Amino acid sequence: MSVQLAAYSTSTGEAFQFWVLGTVAVIGALCTVFMKKAVHSALCLAGTMIILAIFYLANGAYFLGIVQIVVYTGAIMMLFLFVVMLVGVTAADSLKETIKGQRWLALLSGLGFGVLLIAGIGHASLTEFTGLTEANAHGNVEGLAALIFTKYVFAFEITGALLITAAVGAMVLTHRERTERALTQRELSERRVREGKHVPPLPAPGVYARHNAVDVQGLLPDGTPSELTVSRTLRERGQIRDVSAEALNDLKALEQRAEERLERAAITPPHLKRTEEASK
Amino acid sequence: MNPVNYLYLAALLFTIGATGVLIRRNAIVVFMCIELMLNACNLAFVTFSRMHGNLDGQIIAFFTMVVAAAEVVVGLAIIVSLFRSRHSASVDDASLMKL
C-alpha cells in the first residue's frame, strides 16, 4: 500500500473505490441537504462521514481515519441525533420563504461557488504527488505524535483549553437554575383546598373520548374536549393529540367500506340473490 | 486515477454543505451542513498531506476535528436553549431584534 501511495497515479483498486464511494458520499451529502426530516439528514451525514473515513485510510492517514469514525460518527453524530430527538422529530422544516426567491438565489450562488472552486483546483499546477511512503516510514501514529509534541505543542495545549471551555460553555448554556423551592405534595394539596378549586384529583385523560392515551383529551358530556385532563407538560409543549375528528373519519371509512361491499353484493351471481330473497 | 480527484470531491462536498447552510431553515440541519463543510476541508487537508509528503496536513485536520467537536457541543447547547425559549428550532423564528 505504501508503495502505491508514492505513485503519481493510484492503483486501479483505489480508483474503483474512489468512484464508487465518492458517488455514494456525494449522494449522502445531497440527501443531508434535501431530506425533509432532520433525522434522515443526520443519518445521511453519518454515512458520508464513514465514507470520508475510508478515504482518509486510503490516503495514508490511518490515525485520522480511525479518529474520524470514533469522533465524528461515534460521538458528534450521536450528539446530533440526541438533540434531534430532544428538539422534536416531528418538527418538519417550514417550506415558507422568509425572503422571496431566497432558495433559488442560494442554489445559484452555491452553483457559482462550486464552479469557481473546481475551476480553481483545475487550474492549479498539482502535477507532482510525493506520497506518504517516507513520512509514514516509522508509522503514521508515531509520525503524528512527533509533530504534535514538538512543532505543534503550543497549539495542542491551547486545544485542551478550548475543549474545557466548550464543556463548561455547554453546561452553562443548558443549565437552568431553579429560582424557588419546588412545592411538596402536601403544600400542593393544602393550596388546592384553600383555593377550593379542583379539590379531587384532576380528571383522567381520554375517559370519555375513544382513546385513553395520555395525550388525548377527555371529552365533556357535551362533546367538547377538556384541557384539564391532559398533563400540564404536554399542554405547554403543544403535544395534545386531537382525536375529535377521528371518530367521524372512522365512520366515513366504515360507510365507504360498506358501500363497496354492497356494490360487490350487487354484482354477485343471481342465484345467490335469489337465495337471499328466499331466506327473507 | 489522479489523486487530485480527492480535491475535486472535497470541493463538491464543501459546495453542497455551503448551499445547504443557505437553503435550510432548521437550525440543526444548518449545523449538519457546517459539519459537512468541515469534513470536506479535512479531506482536502489529508490529500494535501499526501501530495506534499509530510504529515503537517494531517495535523491540521486533526486540530480541525478537535475544534469541530468543541463547536458542536456549544452549538447544540445553543440550539437546545433556543428551543427551550422559543419552542422552535427554525432559524427564522429567532428574529427578536428585527424591526
UniProtKB/TrEMBL annotation, chain B:
GO terms for cellular component: NADH dehydrogenase complex; plasma membrane. Coiled coil: none annotated. The keyword 4Fe-4S does not apply. One of its GO terms (molecular function) is NADH dehydrogenase (quinone) (non-electrogenic) activity. Its EC number is 7.1.1.-. It catalyses: a quinone + NADH + 5 H(+)(in) = a quinol + NAD(+) + 4 H(+)(out). It is a multi-pass membrane protein. It comes from the Bacteria. NDH-1 shuttles electrons from NADH, via FMN and iron-sulfur (Fe-S) centers, to quinones in the respiratory chain. The immediate electron acceptor for the enzyme in this species is believed to be a menaquinone. Couples the redox reaction to proton translocation (for every two electrons transferred, four hydrogen ions are translocated across the cytoplasmic membrane), and thus conserves the redox energy in a proton gradient. This is NADH-quinone oxidoreductase subunit K. It comes from Streptomyces griseoruber.
